[in-house]
């Protein structure tokens, strides 16, 4: 499905994202935006002052799709506390959204065309159910190459990507939201499953792009030096092969901008964190529990 094909809506949906140096850092941000343009009434793109052609690419996309609204910003590079500058940029986008629901995507996240109708149906069916504050998506975290998925509890398996735009919510960082229905007592949003997936491609971009990304963003977590990127440095038990299909809009990017020669190392020594996750995976297999991090409460 292309962005010129529109699915009928009753609930209004605003898409939003934030970007900076996205071309230089290897984000499939154009494909990310295009993946949901057909189901949103507007798409707010917050573009931080960049040294590449990120803004030019968004403006070119806007010419073909007037749904796109651009907000230009300058990041506060003094803000280095646990990625809060990401929260600031995310909320600039959210505050500019006018729809019943806000659909936030990060620049390396894509939605499959087969899931679009389900998402619209959930937004419509839950619009009048005030108990539902957010929609939770299942995640495909691609790792190393498009043929592998990271699946251990170290990776969040589900996350809110759509939130009701009439409640008091804010983002502590770029990943998730908190709701403040009670003053000074933030809580996780009450949510239902969206019956759809987010396809997360950040960890299959070319190694040199990933290294530059870490070099640039580590400062926002008060880190003096970024770690060296080595995709093979992962517990092979944390990976499984991908058996599905990739979204149509990401196919060219995968061919030209993704790593394809990846083999997980089988002779490296596990870290203490990986041993902990191995134990968690064994418990999950025995009990059926999901021990991954959750930033929502299913109702």
- Largest beta-sheet characterization: 11 strands, mixed
CATH architecture: Alpha-Beta Complex
Average pLDDT taken over every residue: 93
Under the CATH scheme, which class?
Alpha Beta
* CATH fold node name: Spore Coat Polysaccharide Biosynthesis Protein SpsA, Chain A
Strand content: 15-25%
Overview of this structure, please?
The protein has helices at residues 29-34, 54-64, 84-95, 116-125, 207-217, 251-257, 272-287, and strands at 13-19, 42-48, 68-73, 101-104, 109-111, 134-143, 145-150, 158-164, 169-170, 178-179, 190-203, 239-241, 297-298. The mean pLDDT is 93. Strands 1, 2, 3, 4, 5, 6, 7, 8, 11, 12 and 13 form an 11-stranded mixed β-sheet that branches. The protein has a two-stranded antiparallel ribbon with strand order 9-10. The protein has one domain (11-299): Alpha-Beta Complex (Spore Coat Polysaccharide Biosynthesis Protein SpsA, Chain A). It is built from 7 helices and 13 strands.
SSE blueprint and pairings:
Blueprint: E1 13-19, H1 29-34, E2 42-48, H2 54-64, E3 68-73, H3 84-95, E4 101-104, E5 109-111, H4 116-125, E6 134-143, E7 145-150, E8 158-164, E9 169-170, E10 178-179, E11 190-203, H5 207-217, E12 239-241, H6 251-257, H7 272-287, E13 297-298
Parallel strand pairs: 1-2, 1-4, 2-3, 6-11, 11-13
Antiparallel strand pairs: 4-8, 5-11, 6-7, 6-8, 7-12, 9-10
Summarize the structure.
With 299 residues, this protein is an alpha/beta fold. Helices cover 24% and strands 24% of the residues.
Features:
299 residues, alpha/beta, Spore Coat Polysaccharide Biosynthesis Protein SpsA, Chain A, eleven-stranded mixed sheet, two-stranded antiparallel ribbon
């Amino acid at each position: 499905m292309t962005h010129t094909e529109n699915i009928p809506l009753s609930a209004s949906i605003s898409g939003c994202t934030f970007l900076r140096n996205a071309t230089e850092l290897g984000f499939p941000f154009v494909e990310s935006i295009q993946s949901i343009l057909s189901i949103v009434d507007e798409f707010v793109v917050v573009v931080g002052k960049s040294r590449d052609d990120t803004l030019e690419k968004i403006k070119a996309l806007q010419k073909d799709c007037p749904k796109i609204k651009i907000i230009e910003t300058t990041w506060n590079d003094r803000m280095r506390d646990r990625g809060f500058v990401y929260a600031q940029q995310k909320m600039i986008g959210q505050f500019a959204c006018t729809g019943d629901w806000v659909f936030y995507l990060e620049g390396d996240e894509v939605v499959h065309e087969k899931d679009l109708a389900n998402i619209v149906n959930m937004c419509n069916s839950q619009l009048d159910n005030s108990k539902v504050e957010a929609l939770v998506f299942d995640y495909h975290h691609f790792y190393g190459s498009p043929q592998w998925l990271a699946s251990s509890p170290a990776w969040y398996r589900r996350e809110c990507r759509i939130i009701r735009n009439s409640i008091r919510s804010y983002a502590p960082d770029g990943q998730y939201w908190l709701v403040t229905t009670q003053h000074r007592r933030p809580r996780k949003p009450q949510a239902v499953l969206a019956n759809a997936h987010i396809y997360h491609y950040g960890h299959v971009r070319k190694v040199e792009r990933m290294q530059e990304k870490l070099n640039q963003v580590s400062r926002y977590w008060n880190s003096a030096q970024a770690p060296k990127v080595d995709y093979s440095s992962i517990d092979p038990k944390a990976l499984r092969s991908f058996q599905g299909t990739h979204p149509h809009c990401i196919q060219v990017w995968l061919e030209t901008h993704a790593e394809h020669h990846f083999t997980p190392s089988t002779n490296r020594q596990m870290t203490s964190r990986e041993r902990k996750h191995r134990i968690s995976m064994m418990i999950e297999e025995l009990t059926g529990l999901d021990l991954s991090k959750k930033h929502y409460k299913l109702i």
